[in-house]
Amino acid sequence: MSKGNNSKKSDQQKIFVLDTSVILYDHNAFRNFQEHDVAIPIHVLEELDNFKNGNETRNFEARSFIRLIEDISHNNLLNKWQPLNGSTHGNFKVILYEKPSATDAENIFGDGKFDHRILNAALNLQQEHREKKVVLVSKDICLRLKAKALNLFAEDYETGKVKNVEELYTGKTNIENVPEKLLNELSSGKRLSTKQLDLNSEHSNHFYILHGKKRIESAFYNMESGKLEQVPDRSVFNIFPKNPEQAFAIHALLNPAIKLVTIQGNAGTGKTLIALASALEQRKYFRQIYVTRPIVPLSNKDIGFLPGDIKSKVDPYMAPIWDNLKFIREQYADDTQTQAKIDDMIDSEKIAIAPLAFIRGRTLNRIFFIVDEAQNLTPHEVKTIISRAGENTKIVFTGDIYQIDTPYLDAESNGLSYLIDKARNHPLYAHITLQKGERSELANLATELL
User: What is the predicted pLDDT for the residue at 7?
Assistant: First the structure.
């Protein structure tokens, strides 16, 4: 739950109890509940203490929240209600653990688990403040269900969520019955106005598939020029587009005026391959090509549990990127000189492939920066990455919003969906959703039927 500050005040005052998953998602979450009070169970602080060390985003969120609470407390006691800054905000406090006299979550679900103690803290608060509506806010679906089973209101943290993911911006539109004359003008290199195609004035860089009676042309509406231009079927580093959407992606990736690109699509649609090939095509214009992805360890264990040095720990997670680079290299089987150039770029770190955590704190100048599997990032992580962009840097996010491996994220709340929804009208941004799998017919069978 979180609504804008312009929302009308509700009739009933509420107390929102935040669990650890919300803080690790957004350390500033407690400020987003307007006039209502916000409480943090003491066990959440204990869990955050366990997360404060490390270089991952969740560690950063834990540390940032702890500092914010320290700033709020000053010389006051945190177990007493403290006013949050601003006339539109309520109060804040840390609630201690007391077993409720009525329903006891630990008796029902078992002792020794922090989640159940957080439930008890909220239930006890519900008993103390019967005049207010107590709501547990959590990114953990199972915890929300347990709360509702105990007659405790519970909801997801809504800030950063896309309202209707089924209507998420795709970056393209099909236009039927386009006159042959206009298609001829476009294919000859002439730019068309939106009025010629009876299109509404566009407010975003956008792709079009123009259908005539006999043929189809691909076009791109350029916000900078206010015109539609042809999108050619252009190859990048010997990788050829196999459908119009892939051609659209290449067009956006090669456009120097577009600094931020998102490519969304199912497995096998060519997202990472096209992004990497486009980066190699433009290698002369960038100081370095940086390809990364967030590490989502199996069983939610940190990579420190794995044997070996840091390279051997992270290489298995980077393997899909290396596979794409190997595939590009194989396209030059008869050109040993180009293969040698690719090898040299790897050896000299002109191409750098490393986990996302390794770039924290760096300013990215003249970098072609590809972030793969971006659906496993939070909105705050995406914002942090973009804020690192220096001069002449291009950032590309690729991913599948329906293939999420990170706990507490879904198709609506992940950073890739958030970015696509928020950035669509910016002149530096372009997006395309890839739909047709090009890996193999067998791979398509899995996507379509299973």
Answer: 41
Distance CA 154, CA 146 (A): 9
Quick one: pLDDT band at residue 35, thresholds 50, 70, 90? Answer: confident
pLDDT for 147 beyond 70: yes
DSSP 241: -
Do the domains 165-172+235-449 and 14-155 match in fold?
yes
Stated pTM of the model: 0.86
Separation CA 85–CA 304 (nearest Å): 40
Q: In angstroms, what CA-CA distances link 221 with 192, 195, 205, 213, 271?
A: 9, 12, 6, 22, 22
pLDDT of residue 366: 94
CA angle 166/170/176 to nearest 5° reads 105
pLDDT reported for residue 86 = 63
Token pair of 137 as six digits:
């806010």
Closest alpha carbon to 247 in 442, 436, 440: 436
pLDDT in tens, 161-173: 998 999 999 999 9
DSSP, res 298 = G
Angstrom distances, CA of residue 219 to CA of 199, 232, 347, 438 = 13, 9, 39, 22
pLDDT of residue 302 exceeding 70, the answer is: no
| Cβ–Cβ under 8 Å, residues 95 and 79 | yes
Distance CA 320, CA 163 (A): 32
- Using DSSP's 3-state secondary structure scheme, residue 270 falls into coil
Q: Examine the pLDDT at 191 and tell me if it is beyond 70.
A: yes
pLDDT-above-90 percentage for the chain = 66
| Ramachandran region, residue 180 (left: φ > 0; alpha: ψ -120 to 50; beta: rest) | alpha
Q: Is the pLDDT of residue 8 over 60?
A: no
Burial of 20 (0-12, 13-18, 19+ CB in 10 A): buried
CA 157/CA 284 separation, integer angstroms: 44
- CATH class given for the domain over 165-172+235-449: alpha beta
| Residues facing residue 399 across a β-bridge | 264
Classify domain 14-155 at the CATH class level.
alpha beta
Domain extent listing, the chain: 14-155, 165-172+235-449
* Listed residue (355, 356, 328, 358) closest to 342, CA to CA: 328
Nearest CA-CA partner of 111 in 128, 99, 124: 99
